[in-house]
Amino acid sequence: MSATDVCRAPALSPVGATVERHWRDLAARRRLYTVGGLVFLFLALSGSLWFANETNAGKFFDRLPHVADFFAELKPRDWFDPARALFDLPSPYDDGSLKFDYPEGRVYLTQSIYIPEYFHRMIETLNIALFSTLVGATFGFLLCFFAAGNITASRWLRFVTRRFLEIVRAFPEIVIAGFFLAIFSLGPIPAIIAVSIHTVGALGKMFFEVVENADMKPEEGLRAVGANWVERVWFGIVPQILPNFMSYFLLRLEINVRASTILGAVGAGGIGESLRLSIGRGHEAKTIAIVFLLFCTIVAVDQLSAWLRHRLVGRQAFAYGRGE
Amino acid sequence: MNPDAIDAIAARHPDAFRRSLWKRYATPIGILLCILYTFYCSWFFSVGSVLEKANWNLAGAYLADWVSYEIRPDIEFKDNHLTIDYSRFSKLGSNPNPDWVAKQMAVIERQVEAAPAPAIATNKSSQDSFMAPGAPTAESPAAPSGQSAPAVPETVRENAVVAATVTLGNGQIAVTPSLVTVTRGAESVVFDIAKGSSVTPRTPLPDWIEQRRPGSTAYVSFGFLGRAEVQNDEVVAWRRFFGWANFVFDTNSPFWGKPFGEVASLIVSGARINPSRSNAALAWDNILNNAEWQHGDVWLKLLQTIVMAFVGTVLASIVAFPLAFLAARNVTPSRIANQVTKRFFDFLRSVDMLIWALFFTRGFGPGPLAGMSAIFFTDTGTLGKLYSEALENIDDKQREGIRSVGATPAMVQRYGVLPQVLPVFLSQSLYFWESNTRSATIIGAVGAGGIGLKLWEAMRTNTNWANVFYMVLLILLVVFVFDNISSYLRRKLMGSVANSNDERRVSARPPAAQIA
């Protein structure tokens, strides 16, 4: 027996050869699909990039060397100036222009105690987010039971509720905000309404999925002793789903802080508006101050919410998703 | 069960029967806090005064604009006749003559200073007006300017409108140069017009007519079907029609106003309207460049939005993929590398998508490049975090098995780790693709390209609510289609991996920890 015979694959029985061939066929087809998929993805990606570049105001390769210029422009006169902008302290460079008018924005609580402008704006944004999450969660909570198959027997009621939640979820927030901006004029109320309406849909969907996965034994026990629908839901279902609801509420709060910032930038008040204005006008110290404040706030909200969720539902709550 | 047994149970389980004060009152305290917070917010945002100042009539009109449109004839009082104008870009084309504005013509004499404009050569005369013809002679109104030489007054005889009747649903406005009769249902009010000074009703006004001061403009409401203003120099009526006007062809198109069959036969077999190109090409061009609906531009912007979400997510996935291996502590043993990569992810994620969008709009100029870069940067952070969490949750046995047969580190990753996490990675990416299709709309409004800006501009003018609704419908359609594609792909992917014991739809957002 030579060495080549050892290395050669063992001879297969006819059945074994069939299995082997079939496996090879499957593997080849699988590879073909993978390669085909990747080629398709590559073509779609290059086509999209070309299209995006064609329809953009500036061309990618023309603009690429200048993207960083903006960061260079952001360099303040000295590195204490952003801090002065953040806390509304007078700047030594004040020349009467909008660029250095830091003390102008102070919001006085008493004669001498004031909240710096951007902190006040940030509080406004946070309040928009929290209040609209609260409103959205309340309505989502009320609606989710009518969408859940294990609580609501009526098929059409479930259908109507679910479609309603879907439409409300997919409806662009910006249109709701724009519509109410036209009625209320500028201010935070349109943002609250837009974010709330979106939150109703998003949380309602998550809530009813939680309810559908609830353990029905407590509910059966209550049914056995003659409890009515409200009592069965309130004492049988709500206690076991409440931690999950709270967890989703907090996740949503994180998302809504970002959403209300963005809506602020399109005219609904809050820190987003200040940021857009200061970037647009090229006020470097103000921009840095706002970005810093926004960054810290978002990190703080994320950390706080992650900690609370961890306490509420343990390990599984760490799922981060934007669940829109 | 007797009372003793109940007491015994209560004694055995004190927690269940006498709970701590906090546990007993947690719900009412929570609700109370929420209510207090609501009061605080209504003070903070001064909700009351904002709601009070809100213009709710406007809201109704804007909402009606989503699905209907108005046509506005202006009937101006001249001394002995009337002129009827339509707004400049009227939806009725350049020469409107709708059958719901009945005109009564008569030959009148008037004085003009310069060469008269060609007399209106129409013989159409409505028979249904019950108003008497206006007085035949009077002095000339302000003549058309443009003549600097002292002009000689000249009397011309011409055929002009002396009475007009506008029908709006169950209402009617009959106009003559000195008298306006407004009818709604069975009620009817006659106004005496002193041209240029006052509008005086002959009878007390019903509640559907409002006149803020005696003699001033009267506002007439006909409900959804229209409204009108009777001013001292003109009557303006708005009649509302259901539907979207000129949705396919605008009034400048040669196909405008033709029934569908005629357009089809023109396109298929008609003689060329424009000799330089076929009718089909002309029709397609007219549809794309429809001045009112701007189909071509809207579709282009919608495609930009889709492309932004797609490219942003794909690039983010590609970049996050290798970095996630660096960030996972069970794959890369170096603590420093783990921490640096993870903090980098946190940084990308926490600088908000808005900030990235504003930065890149400055960098690349407005357009989809800015939007896709913003999505790319934010989602590299988010996907990297999710990917590395999935990696940290893998089953170690497969890796050990591969390693035990002497595979190189790269082979261990390829055959021991990748098969476990790839479906999770793809599922997360698909989920973010879906979600980015929505968020791409909103960052577009700050200038980052796509339909967002177009939507925002259409809303700011407050006149194009039908266009807004059209774009909203397109966005909803796109979101619906991509939701379904994404959830179909995810279902196929997850079907082979996570045969979870429950029958939950995989379209539900998959929490990372549960998948892994």
Describe the structure.
Chain B: Residues 302-486 form the ABC transmembrane type-1 domain. Chain B: InterPro entries: MetI-like, MetI-like_sf, PhnE/PtxC. Chain B: The chain crosses the membrane at residues 25-45, 306-332, 353-377, 465-485. The complex is a heterodimer of chains A (324) and B (516). With 324 residues, chain A is mainly α. Chain A is 74% helix and 1% strand. Chain A has helices at 3-7, 14-55, 60-73, 81-87, 117-147, 155-170, 173-184, 188-212, 217-224, 229-268, 271-281, 284-313; strands at 107-108, 114-115. In chain A, helix 8 (188-212) runs antiparallel to helix 10 and helix 10 (229-268) packs parallel to helix 11. The radius of gyration of chain A is 29 Å and the shape is flat. Chain A starts with a helix and ends in an 11-residue tail after the last helix. Chain B has 516 residues and is an alpha+beta fold. Chain B has 3 domains: 3-44; 69-140 and 150-242, no CATH class; 295-515, MetI-like (MetI-like fold, Orthogonal Bundle), CATH 1.10.3720. Helices cover 50% and strands 17% of the residues of chain B. In chain B, the strands form 2 sheets. In chain B, strands 1, 2, 3, 10, 11, 12 and 13 form a 7-stranded antiparallel beta sheet that branches. Chain B has a 6-stranded antiparallel beta sheet with strand order 4-5-6-7-8-9, with no helix packed on it. Chains A and B meet through helix 2, helix 3, helix 5, helix 7 and helix 8 of A and helix 3, helix 4, helix 5, helix 8 and helix 10 of B.
